[in-house]
Specification:
heterodimer, A: 289 residues, mainly alpha, MetI-like fold, 2 domains, B: mainly alpha, two-stranded antiparallel sheet, 12 helices, 76% helix
Chain lengths: 289, 307
């Protein structure tokens, strides 16, 4: 008799086991559907609602409330991204050099610096914006201007560039460096002629990712770059990037169709940039092996 | 002798070059440290002025529910209670993380364990691409889809914490999912093989072995998502309604730290209490981002997979 009850209980547990397995399987499939469904929905929604409203008048040289042209903000975006990368890339890459090539591993300074970059990476972008407003706009007297926006964006993307440089440099094998040293090359020469060419795709992918981040950024630029609709004439005049333009349009709620069309341009812009970055980092991981 | 003289200058230029490279790198590095310290200094020193210059009591700020900067109550105390915003920020962050946790882990399991081929070739690149969608786009979708949907569903304006939570949930989903995928992929193959060898079914292996082993990585993904949700400004500001009151339901207008900052920072005069108290809100954001950072590091240290 006791044997029978024991088989009975195993039967029961097996059934509950199967049931819980089925339940988990269901949840897994459901969450995959929710995740990809919602994201697919967003992309399709933006395209369907926006593409019909992409008209030539959106790309006129001057913004007026009639044409709601996005061209000035598109050009401002390119200017801000270009200038920010011009400043952030050398600083970030050289910091990466220092952390990987010059400083001793496990050094206290290195630990402090990696803590600093981690902190910088975790700061919400609105805080960057407020700091930029306090320091560049008010303290240094730059007003809402391209230069304030660019410098704020530089601070924001630095951790990204530093980390991708670090990772790219670390992925370069030690024997490569040793061979270069053995041939009598100095450290700087080894870095520039041996390590850098191999690490290039990784560093580049970080830089491109950084540009994608700037293109999509709103909170950090709102109180530094300002929201002027004009194309900035010099470093000290205000402007707005595409993302900011989109924010203002959709908060005002006056130009819904134009906001839809702007969303398409913005999303396509960012997706192309990110795809480029992914492609480059894939190439690095292939080249490393 | 001639030969030695020829080589001498080149060697010293070489040494100069070396020194130059090291100096440039060191300067760049010190610049980063300087930037971090000055962000901390500028924001926190402004934020503390609320308490030092304007004599607002810390308790009134953190526990007060009346947010009317510029006005005082009968006893003459400034009405700068930040509790509604603090509650708003924490509630939308926690709720969106609560939604995103099971969904992103489930999606990650699907991508790594159920259909790894499609996962690696199509789904993972797609998710990584979507991480970069600008937050303003999520806010825009929230405004045109989520808010009207909530309005239809429960009535009212549709603006509120429910809309905010839903927008943040979808916004952090790509980030948390892609990090969860990395965590699951990092679980060594032999863990799974050992479980199969012991007679474990696929689903038993997934939730008894793989998920347990990947737990620190999954936790990191969630904390990361929470940090992103907590710090998000414009997407939330567009859908939450921006009323600085303690909401009595999820579908009445509320506010978060970031939404009040975005709304009011441009309209206050520098050096006044109205302005300084906003910096106090920014200080809370900054401190919380440090906390999220420390938690992530702590999880990373505690639970690295030993395989």
């Amino acid at each position: 008799m006791p044997t029978e009850t024991s088989t009975l209980t195993t039967q029961k547990t097996r059934n509950t086991k199967q049931l819980s397995s089925k339940l988990i399987r269901l949840l897994v499939y459901l969450s995959a559907v929710v995740t990809f469904g919602s994201l697919l929905f967003i992309i399709l929604f933006i395209l369907v609602r926006g593409v019909p409203y992409i008209t030539p008048s959106l790309f006129e040289w001057n913004y007026t409330t009639d044409n709601v042209s996005l061209l000035p903000s598109l050009l401002t975006t390119l200017i801000v991204v270009g200038l920010s990368l011009l400043i952030a890339t050398p600083i970030g890459v050289f910091t990466g050099f220092y952390l990987v090539e010059y400083a001793d591993r496990g050094n206290k300074i290195v630990k402090a610096i990696s803590m600093a970059t981690d902190t910088l990476a975790a700061v919400p972008s609105i805080v960057y914006g407020l700091f930029g407003m306090l320091f560049f706009v008010t303290f240094l007297g730059f007003q809402y201007s391209v230069i304030s926006g660019v410098l704020t964006a530089v601070i924001m993307v630095l951790p990204l560039i530093i980390r991708s440089t670090e990772e790219a440099l670390l992925s370069v094998g030690m024997p490569l460096r040793q061979a270069s040293f053995a041939l009598g090359a100095g450290k700087l020469r080894t870095i520039f002629t041996v390590v850098l060419p191999v690490a290039m795709p990784g560093i580049l992918s970080g830089v491109i990712l950084a540009s994608g981040r700037i293109v999509g950024e709103t909170a950090a630029l709102m109180y530094t770059l300002g929201t002027s609709t004009n194309l900035p004439t010099d470093l000290f005049s205000s402007g707005r990037t595409l993302a900011l333009h989109m924010y203002v349009l959709s908060s005002e709620g006056l130009h819904v169709n134009e906001a839809n069309a702007t969303a398409v341009v913005l999303v396509v812009f960012v997706l192309v940039i990110n795809a480029l970055s992914t492609y480059l980092s894939k190439r690095l991981s292939k080249g490393g092996k | 002798m001639e030969q030695i003289k020829d080589t001498q200058p080149t060697r010293s230029t070489k040494r100069n070059q070396e020194r130059f490279g090291k100096t440039i790198s060191l300067i760049a590095t010190l610049l980063i440290v300087l930037v971090v310290l000055s962000i901390l200094f500028f924001v926190l020193s402004r934020g503390l002025r609320t308490f030092t210059q304007h004599d607002v009591s810390v308790l009134d700020f953190f526990a007060g529910t009346e947010w009317r900067p510029g006005e005082t109550d009968d006893a003459g105390n400034a009405l700068v209670g930040a509790l509604p915003m603090i509650v708003g920020s924490f509630v939308v962050t926690l709720l969106s993380a609560l939604l995103a946790t099971p969904v992103s882990i489930g999606a990650a399991v699907f991508m790594t364990e159920v259909s790894p081929k499609a996962g690696k070739k199509i789904l993972q690149p797609a998710i990584e691409l979507l991480v970069g969608i600008p937050s303003v786009v999520y806010g825009f979708i929230g405004l045109t889809v989520v808010v009207p949907f909530v309005r239809q569903l429960v009535g009212g304006t549709g603006f509120g914490m429910l809309a905010g939570t839903l927008v943040l949930f979808v916004m952090i989903l790509p980030t948390t999912t892609s990090m969860a995928v990395d965590a699951l992929n990092a679980v060594p193959r032999h863990y799974r093989e050992a479980s199969f060898a012991m007679g474990g079914t696929r689903w038993q292996t997934i939730y008894r072995v793989v998920l347990r082993a990947a737990m620190p990585g999954l936790l990191t993904a969630i904390v990361f998502g929470m940090a992103r949700a907590f710090g998000e400004a414009l997407a939330v500001q567009m859908v939450i309604g921006n009323a600085p009151v303690l909401p009595d339901s999820f579908t009445t207008p509320a506010s978060t730290l970031t939404s009040i900052l975005t709304m009011n920072m441009g309209n206050t005069v520098f050096g006044t209490l109205e302005n300084d108290v906003l910096w106090s809100l920014a200080s809370i954001l900054l401190v919380m981002s440090l906390v999220f950072n420390i938690v992530t590091r702590w999880i990373g240290k505690k639970g690295a997979i030993k395989g």
